[in-house]
Design a protein that fits this description.
By secondary structure, the chain is an all-alpha fold. The chain has two domains: about 110 residues, no CATH class; about 110 residues, no CATH class. It is about 50% helix and about 0% strand. The chain has nine helices and two strands. A two-stranded antiparallel sheet has the order 1-2. Helix 5 packs across helix 6, helix 5 crosses helix 8 and helix 7 crosses helix 8. The chain is globular and about 60 Å long.
């Protein structure tokens, strides 16, 4: 199962990143905070680290990472921008960076009021479902359970366990994002599986909680255990599963 301590840190960083984006949607996003160096746009986590390291004391306390977790915070923030938001291209948009740098992170920070949630496609949603199935297989491996790929797909699609599968997959990727690894818009699709109503609207007051992830994975393990033994065949997963 997901390690509780690491997941707790990831949830805390997730919340701080969100609060930071909301804070940046104001006067300080117009250049009061500046980058110190020019960054490689292919490594958003490094750009975010440099930006936060140079401006840490200027950030609100509830949106500021502990210094020992600055790298994880920066890595996560880099994926938060690239997998969830686009800069709106419209007349009057400030197509500028922060100080000497025009990388995607610095430009996004300066243009926070112009950030728009990415639009999901059917491909993104299918990718999210694949991540859910991958996580079910990996969870079974971690807990020394046997499950077929077909059964994992069925559990991931079952209305009774679909949200639990999304929780488990989203939690796994919360942890990976602290290392700067993400799966793009599929992560946003997973988020909407757990934080939005089936009708397509956000759940009011929704917050991530470790207990909900634990309950979700326990539900998945119960579903795996309830599968009849005869359903296990030569396709049963017996080797470690690697999410890619």
């Amino acid at each position: 199962m997901l390690p509780a301590d690491t997941l707790t840190l990831a949830i805390d960083i997730h919340g701080r990143c969100y609060r930071l984006l909301k804070w940046l949607d104001g006067a300080l996003s117009y250049g009061a905070l500046r980058a110190q160096h020019i960054h490689d746009d292919s490594v958003p986590g490094d750009a975010a680290y440099d930006w936060f390291n140079g401006n840490l004391l200027h950030l609100p306390v509830d949106a500021r990472p502990a210094p020992r977790h600055l790298q994880e915070f920066a890595n996560y923030f880099g994926t938060y921008l690239t997998s969830s938001f686009d800069i709106v291209e419209k007349p009057g948009a400030r197509k500028i960076g922060s100080g000497p740098c025009y990388c995607s992170v610095c430009t996004s920070v300066v243009n926070t009021p112009l950030l728009k949630t990415k639009r999901l496609t059917q491909k993104d949603k299918r990718h999210a479902r694949n991540l859910m199935v991958d996580r079910i297989l990996q969870l079974a491996q971690e807990e020394h359970r046997s499950v077929t790929a077909e059964t994992a797909e069925r559990i991931g699609e079952d209305p009774k366990t679909r949200v639990a599968a999304a929780y488990s997959a989203y939690g796994w990727w919360l942890i990976q994002r602290m290392q700067g690894v993400s799966e793009g818009k599929a992560i946003l699709a997973l988020w909407r599986e757990i934080a939005w109503e089936p009708t397509g609207t956000p759940i009011k007051g929704f917050k991530l909680c470790v207990a909900d992830f634990v309950e979700a994975e326990q539900s998945l393990l119960a579903a795996i255990s309830s599968e009849p033994a005869e359903s296990l065949n030569s396709d049963t997963i017996q080797t470690p599963v690697v999410l890619v």
